[in-house]
Amino acid sequence: MAQKDIKIRQRHIHSPIRYDITLLTDDDLHLFNEGTHYRLYGKLGAHRMTVDGSPGTYFAVWAPNAKQVSVIGEFNGWNRHSHLLRPRGQSGIWEAFIPHIGKGIMYKYYIASHHNAYAVEKADPLALHCETPPSTASIIWDLEYQWHDRDWMVQRHARNALSAPASVYEVHPGSWRRVPEEGSRPLTYHELAPQLAEYVTKMGFTHVEFLPIMEHPFYGSWGYQITGYFAPTSRYGTPQDFMYLIDYLHQNNIGVILDWVPSHFPGDEHGLGYFDGTRLYEHADPRQGYHPDWGSLIFNYGRHEVRSFLLSSAMFWLDKYHIDGLRVDAVASMLYLDYARTDSDWVRNKYGGRENLDAVALLRDFNRAVYKEYPDVQTIAEESTSWPLVSRPVDNGGLGFGLKWDMGWMHDTLEYMAKDPVYRKYHQNNLTFRSVYAFSENFVLPLSHDEVVHGKASLLGKMPGDDWQKFANLRLLLGYMYAQPGKKLLFMGGEFGQWREWTHEESLDWHLLKYPPHSGLQRWVTDLNRLYRQEPALHEKDCEPAGFAWVDGSDADSSVISFLRKGNNEQDTILVVGNFTPVVRENYRIGVPQPGFWQELLNGDAGEYGGSGAGNMGGITAEAKPWQGQPSSISIKLPPLCILFFKVK
Predict the structure, then answer these.
(1) Is 329 among the residues known to form the active site?
(2) 506-546 per-position pLDDT tens digit
(3) In 356-376, which positions are buried (b, 16+ CB within 10 angstroms) versus exposed (e)?
(4) pLDDT band of 16, cuts 50, 70, 90
(5) 406 is catalytic
(6) What structural domains and CATH numbers belong to the chain?
(7) Active-site residue identified among 241, 276, 382, 412
(8) pLDDT value at 234 more than 80
(9) In b/e form, how buried is each residue of 386-417, taking b as 16+ CB within 10 angstroms?
């Protein structure tokens, strides 16, 4: 920190602790208390600096209901009385500069409250680095790093545009691969970087989405119970190690999306809960401040300082870690005051409704701030209800997200695919209903981690039939996802057909790839990614009604659907035909919009993928025979449990 950046208020030359040093201006305090400070991480927390030739660390923490706050750590033997902070006026912030302590030193705040004789040791809410759990101290650190991803950052706008292909590989870094020779430990960030980049490049995914990387005490929460909103988990390395991972992925033209969790936080004593002897970060009313589903605490979205904290966390990952997108977890739980509650266990808003107006305002402010500063990233809502305009601009009455997970598509499709094909004809609506709302939002089609845990079975395990049919059904499911309008997301392991459910304590079952059905499925996903990226019709209008048209969605008796995907150029049109039964259908006629030779681009039943090898010998010439409202038609062989992609040449 340069000397010119340090404000000197008054001097106590003889004191070993300097109370005359601050990073907080009056404007900072005003914005913080107003709820519009979006970069608190440069002001609160622990910041190394040199003052009058003496290196040390400036500390600042918000604890308005404390009567005493001190910094304790290995530098003072965890003494609660030797290094006291002082309050900054009426702001609720306590601060001091402590000389001769620097990077790598562990510390906490000891807080004695005005209320109930409460005293506690707390981790720093704005710590940049933390002890590896189960230890709970914060660590003085910096974020110095030399980035090498300029080319990616310059072209990021095009890579993240709604008209660009986005095929997201969802990853839990601790269980993607492990090191069996060393007790099956997780890979470090440094070890993960080249292996993940090589694999994602080979598979053709455009982005990686990490389950929450922020520090969390309970590994079994998968990162969704966060205590360190400004610190990547130290389980896999330092902040610079995580930067290296992102940098490496960017240098390989792979975008990085992080899960961000403003919906709730754990009640661990060292964390944010009951921080200064009061419900500071969480809502004081348990009907609004306690989450019955997860046993966690809910932020008080109406408190200005909490809003500043959360918005600063979001901006932090974009500012300091070059993140390309934030996927916001459990948005529905934020939007509704009665979420997961009985009729008598929630509080209506001031208009008598169930909408959480403070949370709505926070999400809108979040999206405004992100897109103002970073118009080349995406924010993504995991929102499972019919709340309107989630991915529409705030100025038009929306929440302002760039994209929204299509949970309806996921539920309907998995329910359909789990049925024995003999019964699928009675449930054709599960496949066709999406077209009613497909362009009401900018959608991501998610086959995420949530669908392969807690007894739900793996994607392969959900499929009916014998082993051959299970693999054929899974190829069909994944092909159908890539054919549909919307961006794609697939959780790790689904791309090669892991049999067992995902477990966070073990590596994926990579050994399965020595078996042809699994390696064939992996090859299928690779080719789907290639086709999706290569063919403009499959991505240019993912979020526009003009990008999709039914040929026939009504053939329920055969459980066959056919539709067109369209790009900006009419010649790019793709015909998609899906047969959801194990029956080979000879001479099946499909209407097409153009004459000529329709090349079979991909066939999910090809032998190289583990299929039976049925197909159309590379394509078929259209006849001048109108059909299904189209001017021409083709008569094709429909392989069993298969999706086909055609394009006129």
Answers:
(1) yes
(2) 999 999 999 999 999 999 999 999 999 999 999 999 999 99
(3) bebbbebbbbbbebbbeebeb
(4) confident
(5) no
(6) 3-139 (2.60.40.10), 545-648 (2.60.40.1180)
(7) 382
(8) yes
(9) ebebbbbebeeebbbbbbbbbbbbbebbbebb
